[in-house]
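Hi support team,

I submitted a single chain yesterday and got back a structure, but I'm not sure I'm reading the token output correctly. Could someone confirm the output below corresponds to the sequence I sent? I've pasted both exactly as they appear in my results page.

Thanks,
R.
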Amino acid sequence: MNQFEGDIHLDKSTILVDDIINSGNSILKQIIALENEGIKVTAVLCILIFHSESWYEELQKRNIKIYSLISHDEISLEL
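Hi R., thanks for writing in. Yes, this is the structure output for that exact sequence:
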């Protein structure tokens, strides 16, 4: 079973796409797995992010930009 889908181009930057980023631990594990294969991740795109970008210090150390369609703060639910 392949850990990655699609063609891998080591000479190009990669954008990692995920649905949700909460603690950042899961996305960091994915980034480390890609880096171990020689793949340079330059950005992460997600639908929903739970914290501000400053929360994800380890991604900042790697110069990985985070893009999200919506943040947790933008969602208001009435119960």
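A quick pointer for reading it: Residues 25-36 form the longest helix (12 residues). Let us know if anything else looks off.

Best,
Support desk
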